[in-house]
Amino acid sequence: MEVLQTLYHELISFLGIGQLLEMYKTGDYKALLTFNGVLTAVSPVIPFLLLLEIGRALVYKRFKVEDYKMPFFIFVLNRFIGRFISIAAIAFCIGLFEKLALFHTTFTWYWLIYGYIVWEFSHFIYHYLGHKVRIFWCLHSTHHAPQNMNLFVSHAHFFLEGPYADVIRTTICILAGVNPPLLFFIMFIDGFWGAFIHVGENLLPDGRLGFLNKIILTPSAHRVHHARNPLYMDTNFCNLLNIWDKVFGTFQYEKKEVAIEYGITRQLNPNNLLDVYFGEFYYLWKDIRKAPGIKNKFLYIIMPPGWSHTGDHKTANIVKAAYQQEEQQKAQQQAAEQTAVLPLETSQAV
């Protein structure tokens, strides 16, 4: 009986309808007129979209258990081992750094704009490091392991990635003067949009969202981020505003002629929880063990994924540069062939 009750509470928590059910039981809906009540009403939207996504895939016979199985297992695992760590990390950073803030903002619309730009910058920093520092990639790679995009992928994270991300983001925002109530509101927006942009092709085939694709990070842009194609690797690190990706040159639109291939570049068993969850740590440990000297061992920890003490680097930058060079050579070859054909056609015409 206790097991069933626990499962019931977990389901209610996942769907985000606990407070709504409480309102229904008491008959008091006045809370919906408050700010917290609005947040309560919005919370079930993403779980509802997830169920809609699964339902649509079933109707059109595109549902595959393996697309959802591993993210679901990771979600369940994280509920047991990392439930309160992020909350503690946020509280710790606020208590430690709030007194050191450059200035203090208030909960107004203009400070919200400022706060969100700062938040997006802090998110860019955390996310960029997650791709460019090997030990942080070990934390982040679990999220990139799924080989299909759907809303459940937003729950596929190594349990320590949340605290790592929140320490960086909270510290930067608090030091920049974003006050805690404003920060929590921004976190809510970010969490909602950050989940939504993982919506899969089963529910939203074209994730560009029209004109919004040029203004914000859309599902299309985030699908690019999850791709292992050389053109798409290490791009679109922001979450909602694409300002910092454009500032730092990491923004990339989805190209129709370059179909997205989801997942990570190493050989991976997508149905093996240990490989998906701990695989990058295992391969990092193997590289450290075989590396000569303390310096090289340390470099494997802090250098980008693909770095090698032998000089045979296969980092994202090198792979992308090789791809771009190859594409440029193809374009030049095609141009030369077309140029060679033109005189022939002219002589035939004469």
TrEMBL record:
<keyword id="KW-1133">Transmembrane helix</keyword>
<keyword id="KW-0560">Oxidoreductase</keyword>
<dbReference type="InterPro" id="IPR006694">
    <property type="entry name" value="Fatty_acid_hydroxylase"/>
</dbReference>
<dbReference type="GO" id="GO:0006643">
    <property type="term" value="P:membrane lipid metabolic process"/>
</dbReference>
<dbReference type="InterPro" id="IPR051689">
    <property type="entry name" value="Sterol_desaturase/TMEM195"/>
</dbReference>
<keyword id="KW-0443">Lipid metabolism</keyword>
<feature type="transmembrane region" description="Helical">
    <location>
        <begin position="31"/>
        <end position="52"/>
    </location>
</feature>
<feature type="transmembrane region" description="Helical">
    <location>
        <begin position="72"/>
        <end position="97"/>
    </location>
</feature>
<dbReference type="GO" id="GO:0008610">
    <property type="term" value="P:lipid biosynthetic process"/>
</dbReference>
<keyword id="KW-0812">Transmembrane</keyword>
<feature type="domain" description="Fatty acid hydroxylase">
    <location>
        <begin position="113"/>
        <end position="250"/>
    </location>
</feature>
<dbReference type="GO" id="GO:0016020">
    <property type="term" value="C:membrane"/>
</dbReference>
<feature type="transmembrane region" description="Helical">
    <location>
        <begin position="109"/>
        <end position="129"/>
    </location>
</feature>
<dbReference type="Pfam" id="PF04116">
    <property type="entry name" value="FA_hydroxylase"/>
</dbReference>
<dbReference type="GO" id="GO:0005506">
    <property type="term" value="F:iron ion binding"/>
</dbReference>
<protein>
    <submittedName>
        <fullName>Sterol desaturase/sphingolipid hydroxylase, fatty acid hydroxylase superfamily</fullName>
    </submittedName>
</protein>
<dbReference type="GO" id="GO:0012505">
    <property type="term" value="C:endomembrane system"/>
</dbReference>
<dbReference type="GO" id="GO:0050479">
    <property type="term" value="F:glyceryl-ether monooxygenase activity"/>
</dbReference>
<keyword id="KW-0472">Membrane</keyword>
